[in-house]
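Q: Hi! New to this. If I give you a protein sequence and the SMILES for zinc ion, can you show me the bound structure?
A: Yes, paste them in.
Q: Okay, here:
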Amino acid sequence: MIPGPGSPKHIGSFIYWLCRELIDLVNGVRTYNCLSQRFFKLHAFLIIIIGDMPAIAHIMDMKGHIGKSPCRACYVTGKRDRTNDQSTIHYPVHTDSNHRERHKIEELLNNPRTHQSFYNLATKIVESETLAGAEVERTCTGLNLMSVLWGLPGINFEHSFPHDLMHLIFLNACPNLVAWWTGTFKNIDTTRDQFRISTDNWKQIGQRIVKSMELIPASFIRQLPDISMLAHTYLAEGWSFWLLHIAPYALDGILPAVYYEHLMDLVSITQRAISYNLTEQEVLTVFQDKCTKWVMDYKWYVTLLSLPNSERHICSIILFSHQDYTINTKRNEHRHVQQ
Ligand SMILES: [Zn+2]
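A: Thanks. Here is the predicted structure of the protein with zinc ion bound:
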């Protein structure tokens, strides 16, 4: 619908006609049933939209991951590294080297954005008396204005834009973990980290993946290239197969036990998340607790255990949206938190 290469400046005008068609579908369109050989009114509702964070922010008319209040699910706020003009905004859990918490995970989870809160915050922007005032409200709320999808029957701003498993785990957590293990995470030196996998071991794993492809039926997965050289070519499908079917065997005995167990927790969470018998009750209790624990362990294992004397700092947020969660992590220089 929008060919690019850039994204539209005013998304509302692009999807206006789509909205009109969606409203027609809600009201019902005359459709022929070839079995009963009769016409009937077909009603259809758009209830869920998925995409990566920039795309969803765009369609929700939010500032997104570059904003001070970036999350569509909660009110976590970011902090800009003023010492670096090129820097993006980070979301530190701690404000300083004393590890004083600036965000309590439980508080974020217990105070989610709601459908009504989107409307209330957009109203504050509209009612600002000056343009400068409106811009301040935009920064604080993370909204540009109200999306044209607001009010469309079926769309609920709290529930219709979930953080999906593909982006969270296969395209985010998996490549991030590999980047940590191989020392390619955002140019951060992990040479001395306990979880660092040696170049030789990683090459061997890559070669074994290529060899194993000869024995794996194509119905399971297309040809996966050598992960030690071509990890950047892996798509979600490849990362999914890597996580669920390769990593548990390839990294057994390679990663120190504590990190291997943490990886296996992610495997178990993913397996449960894609199972068809996951109940809402389980999601809201055991499953959510497991996800929270995994993210907290991630923060702990990646930073504190491996870098007891480090001046580096982790910034992490959890974005919970019912069954889904996401992680944004970033270790940064100490100067970043000294401001
Ligand atoms: Zn959030």
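A: The chain is about 45% helix and 10% strand. Let me know if you'd like me to explain how to read the tokens.
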